[in-house]
Write a structure and sequence with these properties.
236 residues, Rossmann fold, six-stranded mixed β-sheet, 9% strand
């Protein structure tokens, strides 16, 4: 399919609630479909929706080796409570090997290269045998994400990329979490609305942009998993 075909499909899918988008995607692409999660609020919502719908697909997370301990605790909670087995995807280089090859604290000097090594390449590898990839990004998160569609062709990874929560607001996500009393990362109540790796995440002050704690002080706003795909989209 051409990108224009996906645009027409997105026009239809965007009128549906996330549960119906999920059900459609799984019916269309299973068993070569997977969901990625960083265990943020949106990911939690999608995990719960999959459970409620009785849909079982592989769910993976990228363990950069620099995740907050609270992320691992939340994953473990989901494994125990919901019986989900997450696939752990790791970079080829350990942190020690990365430091030997590129120097200590690469994230301070060249965060794009660090994200490439620790996130983007592992993602490419896990998607090699997939036809479709589900992610919980939302249009209200960044200007770039606002350019996304519910479904699009991801040229770089050669898969269909699906965003069932694209049109939801942050408030809708939290309402859903509260309605179903879902576990979530306690750091979200301590000034961290958006979480990434420990060295690249700080809490935010009241009134700051919700993602201003990511790569604070740097021009970088995306880890490279979604940004280049969205930058390459051409809208009429
Ligand atoms: S978020 Fe920071 S530490 Fe994590 S992979 Fe990217 S640059 Fe490296």
């Amino acid at each position: 399919m051409e990108q224009s075909d996906f645009a027409a499909l997105a026009d239809t899918l965007e009128t549906l609630p996330p549960q119906e988008i999920l059900a459609w995607a799984v019916a269309q692409y299973s068993p070569q479909i997977a969901m990625s999660t960083a265990f943020g609020p949106g990911g939690i919502v999608l995990l719960h929706m999959l459970q409620q719908l009785g849909l079982s697909i592989p769910v993976f997370y990228i363990d950069t080796g620099l995740l907050f301990p609270e992320v691992h605790r939340l994953r473990s909670q989901f494994e125990q409570t919901f019986g989900i087995q997450f696939e752990r995807v790791c970079p080829a280089l350990s942190l020690e090997q990365q430091a030997e090859q590129f120097g200590e604290k690469l994230w301070e000097r060249d965060p794009d290269r660090c994200c490439w090594l620790r996130k983007v390449v592992p993602l490419q590898q896990v998607l090699r045998d997939k036809r479709a990839w589900i992610s919980a990004i939302r249009a209200d998160q960044t200007k770039l994400r606002a350019k996304a569609r519910v479904i699009l062709w991801d040229e770089r990874n050669q898969v269909v990329k699906i965003h069932p929560l694209l049109r939801w607001s942050e408030e809708q996500v939290w309402e859903y979490i509260q309605r179903y009393r879902l576990p979530y990362n306690p750091l979200h109540d301590q000034g961290y609305p958006s979480l990434g790796c420990i060295p690249c995440t700080t809490p935010i002050e009241r009134g700051e942009d919700r993602r201003s704690g990511r790569w604070r002080g740097k021009a970088k706003v995306e880890c490279g998993l979604h940004g280049p795909i969205l930058e390459s989209l051409h809208h009429p």
